[in-house]
């Protein structure tokens, strides 16, 4: 039982981090960033030397952990900010659908750039192998990484809450999320806030990349897609633009996925995701605004 | 004539080609590669295509086929199914007598169907679905590899007979037909082994891109006793993730796999992996019992600058080998005559084991597999095994 709780929490953590990365950007500029998954993939490939051989040439991946972690986070943040400067800035006054299409296109550019440098073969990489040891907690035996994922996610969430509530930058970001034009009139510098949101979102993508890389031992150009989809769904059922909602929904989605895997009979298990998405539809039927609707997105009378 | 032809539609081309069967000059035989030379399938098609080129070079050096040189023409499928059909037509247009198509059934079949429509022989480089042949394309289509179910059946029987494994657990990744094929073979073999004292203690499924298979692992750990062997029906990249998570959870059962996970390129992801078994057609690890395979490995390295990365280079060599033999015997490149000769092959010796084709199955439903065991992160050949009876067609068509 306890094991299931840990399984659900660790999978939920991954989705929650992804959802947060998307919700942050949606909050400040109404952009659903579909390139987020490809930023995740890019962050992990940055640890490898470009080559199309089957054998991965590990490069930055050999750094000790106290350099490795900042490096991956910085790569994610850097790429994300670059996307904003080069692409999204030019779309700022267009409608959300146009921006979304642009983010799709950008995602393809990043993915095919990786394909060109690294080929489509998934590359193997052993990151921080100590984390793959099993540990025993309250009678549940689980990989150390699972525990660390949960702890790190909770720490990141607390850190983010403090950042958003206690710092001036956080205040500006929340103001921008609530009413962007009003915030600008009151002296919030739009470029700075939006870049900050992209940097944070990119760093979160880097964090997912690290957890994913350690857990699966694989760098694959498609690897961001599955997490991206789940994260996007989390932001929708959480209420688009609501950070708390995105996190809550991420955890719920992870839990739903694990619980379905546990309770479904073996013949129905291949269709697990259909049941999960069915639950998503039910949630949206009853709460079309999402679990925690963001104030900024409500229709004003 | 040629200019006009390119303007005609595919259907019209077929009709015209029936009237003028030979565009190729009579002093050469043309092999057309309608395979992925770019895009994501390239990483899977190119190694086997290189191996095929090695056999073609050997034949040309030895004086050619029926006294004629083999000439190679190519068209890129760009890892795209629609482009695949075009690539197939393109090599046929260039006079291909044999159309070599992509490794995978879904990606190779458009070009194979184009060849079938033109009445030419097509060969899948390494597809392992029964559809890659008569069942999915038509009577002129073949595959150079061995059916996926044979891999699952081989591993189950070998583990039971040679490693004394009694309790089995089946973990299926529902992503591809290949994965299901491995488990279908396992499911076909299992009742026979159960009659002799083996036991299937549980089944579960996952998806290749699942972020975590923690719930599946929890179910294995909930068993009263760790199973002797886990049949893992999956492929890259999810395979590495699954294996890593199984071992990280402290499960030390034997892990049985299909050939899709052969290769040492990914082993760095699971340091010190042990008790891990893969069926292979030949060894890329420098310890193949057949010295000629080692010679081939050296030739491959000389040609491409790299060692073979997995056993999936080998079917390309086998493909040209059996086709060329059939052409020699038929004394013609006429498709129907060559197919008839191929179908006469019963246990035809090749560098990578005997091959059989029949008028019902252009694929291998039994094969001699080498068993590669990985111990402390080092794969090596420990045994070889041929299943006690071929898998019948109805079990393959499930």
Walk me through this protein's architecture:
The complex is a heterodimer of chains A (301) and B (398). Chain A has 301 residues and is mainly α. Chain A has one domain (2-6, 12-224). Chain A has eleven helices and six strands. Chain A has helices spanning 2-29, 36-45, 65-86, 96-118, 144-166, 168-178, 180-185, 190-216, 223-238, 243-263, 272-286; strands at 48-49, 57-58, 123-124, 134-137, 140-143, 218-219. Chain A has a two-stranded antiparallel ribbon. In chain A, strands 3-6 form a two-stranded antiparallel ribbon. In chain A, strands 4-5 form a two-stranded antiparallel ribbon. In chain A, a hairpin with a 7-residue loop joins strand 1 (48-49) and strand 2. In chain A, helix 3 packs across helix 8 (190-216). Chain A is globular, with a radius of gyration of 19 Å. Chain B is an alpha/beta fold. Chain B folds into two domains: 2-146 and 292-343, Response regulator (Rossmann fold, 3-Layer(aba) Sandwich), CATH 3.40.50; 148-280 and 368-396, Rossmann fold, CATH 3.40.50. In chain B, 41% of the residues lie in helices and 18% in strands. Chain B is built from 14 helices and twelve strands. In chain B, helix 7 (148-162) runs parallel beside helix 8 (177-194). Chain B is globular. At the A-B interface, helix 1, strand 5, helix 8, helix 9 and helix 10 of A face strand 7, helix 9 and helix 10 of B.
Oligomer: heterodimer
What global shape of chain B is seen? globular
Strand order across the largest sheet of chain B = 7-6-8-9-10-11-12
The major pleated sheet of chain A works out as: 2 strands, antiparallel
Number of domains of chain B: 2
| Percent of residues in helices of chain B | 40-55%
Pattern of helices and strands of chain B: HHEHEHEHEHEHEHEHEHEEHHHEEH
The rounded Rg of chain A comes to: 19 Å
């Amino acid at each position: 039982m306890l094991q299931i709780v840990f399984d659900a929490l660790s999978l939920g953590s991954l989705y929650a981090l992804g959802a947060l990365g998307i919700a942050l950007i949606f909050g400040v500029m109404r952009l659903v960033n579909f390139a987020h998954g490809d930023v995740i993939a890019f962050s992990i490939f940055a640890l490898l030397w470009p080559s199309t051989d089957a054998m991965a040439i590990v490069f930055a991946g050999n750094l000790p952990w106290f350099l490795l972690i900042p490096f991956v986070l910085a790569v994610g943040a850097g790429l994300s900010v670059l996307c904003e400067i080069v692409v999204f800035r030019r779309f700022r006054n267009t409608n959300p659908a146009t921006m979304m299409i642009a983010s799709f296109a950008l995602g393809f550019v990043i993915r095919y750039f990786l394909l060109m440098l690294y080929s489509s073969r998934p590359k193997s990489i052993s990151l921080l192998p100590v984390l793959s040891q099993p540990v025993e907690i309250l009678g549940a035996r689980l990989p150390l990484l699972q525990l660390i994922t949960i702890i790190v996610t909770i720490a990141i969430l607390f850190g983010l809450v403090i950042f958003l509530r206690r710092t001036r930058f956080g205040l500006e970001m929340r103001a921008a999320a609530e009413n962007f034009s009003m915030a600008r009139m009151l002296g919030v510098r739009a470029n700075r806030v939006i870049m900050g949101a992209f940097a944070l979102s990119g760093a979160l993508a880097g964090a997912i990349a690290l957890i994913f890389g350690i857990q699966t031992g694989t760098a694959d150009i498609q690897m961001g897609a599955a997490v991206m989809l789940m994260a996007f769904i989390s932001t929708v059922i959480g209420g688009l633009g609501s950070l708390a909602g995105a996190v809550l929904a991420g955890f719920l989605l992870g839990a739903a996925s694990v619980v379905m895997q546990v309770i479904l009979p073996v013949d129905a298990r291949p269709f697990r995701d259909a049941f999960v998405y069915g639950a998503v539809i039910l949630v949206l039927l009853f709460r079309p605004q999402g679990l925690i609707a963001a104030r900024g997105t409500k229709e004003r009378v | 004539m040629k200019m006009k032809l390119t303007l005609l539609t595919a259907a019209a081309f077929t009709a015209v080609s029936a009237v003028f069967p030979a565009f190729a000059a009579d002093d050469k035989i043309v092999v057309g590669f309608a395979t992925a030379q770019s895009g994501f399938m390239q990483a899977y098609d190119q190694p086997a295509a290189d191996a095929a080129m090695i056999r073609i070079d050997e034949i040309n050096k030895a004086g050619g086929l029926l006294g004629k040189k083999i000439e190679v023409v190519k068209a890129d499928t760009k890892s795209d199914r629609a482009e695949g059909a075009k690539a197939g037509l393109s090599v046929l247009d260039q006079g291909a007598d044999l159309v070599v198509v992509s490794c995978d059934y879904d990606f190779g079949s458009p070009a194979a169907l184009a060849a079938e429509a033109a009445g030419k022989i097509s060969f899948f480089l390494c597809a392992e679905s029964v559809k890659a042949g008569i069942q999915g394309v038509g009577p002129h289509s073949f595959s150079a590899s061995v059916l996926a179910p044979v891999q699952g059946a081989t591993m189950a029987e070998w583990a039971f007979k040679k490693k004394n494994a009694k309790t089995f657990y089946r973990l299926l990744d529902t992503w591809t037909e290949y994965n299901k094929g491995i488990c279908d073979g396992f499911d076909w073999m299992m009742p026979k082994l159960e009659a002799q004292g083996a036991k299937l203690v549980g089944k579960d499924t996952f998806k290749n891109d699942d972020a975590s298979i923690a719930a599946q692992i929890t179910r294995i750990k909930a068993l009263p006793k760790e199973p002797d062997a886990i049949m893992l029906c999956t492929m890259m990249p999810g395979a590495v993730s699954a294996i890593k998570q199984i071992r990280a959870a402290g499960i030390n059962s034997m892990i049985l796999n299909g050939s899709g996970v052969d290769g040492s390129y990914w082993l760095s992801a699971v340091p010190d992996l042990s008790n891990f078994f893969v069926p292979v057609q030949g060894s890329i690890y420098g310890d193949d019992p057949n010295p000629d395979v080692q010679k081939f490995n050296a030739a491959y390295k000389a040609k491409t600058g790299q060692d073979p990365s997995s056993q999936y280079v080998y079917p390309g060599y086998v493909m040209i080998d059996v086709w060329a033999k059939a052409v020699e015997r038929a004394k013609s490149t006429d498709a129907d005559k060559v197919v008839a000769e191929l179908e006469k092959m019963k246990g035809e010796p090749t560098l990578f084991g005997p091959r059989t084709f029949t008028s019902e199955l252009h694929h291998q439903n039994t094969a001699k597999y080498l068993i590669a065991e990985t111990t402390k992160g080092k794969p090596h050949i420990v045994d070889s095994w041929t299943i006690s009876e071929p898998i019948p067609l109805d079990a393959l068509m499930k």
